[in-house]
Structure prediction request, 290 residues.
Amino acid sequence: MATVSSLLLFFFFFYTHALAVLAAAGNEVALFSHVKSILKRGESLSNNGSSLTLETDCDLVLRDANKMILWNSGSVDKGVECIFWVGKYGVAIVSDVDGSPLWTTGSPGPPGNYAILLRPDGKLRLYGPSIWTFERSASSASVVAEQRLVEAKPPSFDSSGYVMYSSEEFIYEPAVGVMLKHGNYSLVLETSCTIHIRRNNYQSSAEFPVAEQRPRAFRAVAPPCKTQLTTDGQLEAYKLLYLGAGGLDDVWLRSWGSNFTVLAKESIAALVDRGKSGELLIYPMKETIT
Ligand SMILES: *[C@@H]1O[C@H](CO)[C@@H](O)[C@H](O)[C@H]1NC(C)=O
Ligand SMILES: *[C@@H]1O[C@H](CO)[C@@H](O)[C@H](O)[C@H]1NC(C)=O
Ligand SMILES: *[C@@H]1O[C@H](CO)[C@@H](O)[C@H](O)[C@H]1NC(C)=O
Prediction:
């Protein structure tokens, strides 16, 4: 299928993707255009039991938690080496190693940062372009000092631990502590109810203890902070000002916000370890694939 758009994709791939590609490691749920992550043949994205696999015959196959096939791309070509990736125009592509697309999905958007994500509910969606980026370089000091960080309620809905969802079903509210973690970086809701990216001190992992069941007595103590990602793509943190009689009477003060929104049905925030820096990107939903 040698169309004009496939030629464009070809050139785009070879001039911007051919060099440094990061293969998606074991526990990934998403591919990101800005870090050029790819799936190779035999590799998968997986989330909450569902999986998306680039089969050895180049077919992209979505399976549910019972390994039942829900969907496939039909891009079967036994003769070639192929990869799956998302480009900077928001089109997801199974291409051969020469860069010619075997299959694409998604309509081209403005150039930017895009992601393709296998959600915890087993749905495949494209997100982007990102509306907000928050970066922290490895060299900037301020590694966790004396303070003991509590691991937030683990995001059990997402196997990766690096994606946060705006959808109500996926909301979790850490009182304070690590919200997302990817490689050497964490997104932390501080005791001051502000949000920072921190570089983990990988030599003393004790600073990032695994979540423990809190003693019941602690439940009487209200969480000092809460956070949410709104559907229109704003990450916000709130500090508890007054503890009301019931939860509804509590008074919260907005203590931090990413201050940027866009009209969207749903958004995600993803923390990405880029080695020299840790980055949080917020993406509105672009389109559904399955
Ligand atoms: C995770 O998978 C289970 C079983 O397939 C499902 O019932 C549950 O709703 C999924 N979680 C989310 C957040 O979609
Ligand atoms: C974390 O940083 C250390 C030291 O810079 C490095 O050796 C290690 O590979 C990094 N880990 C990850 C998961 O990036
Ligand atoms: C968002 O706006 C508030 C108030 O103007 C400001 O204090 C805060 O630093 C802003 N957040 C970011 C991430 O810039």
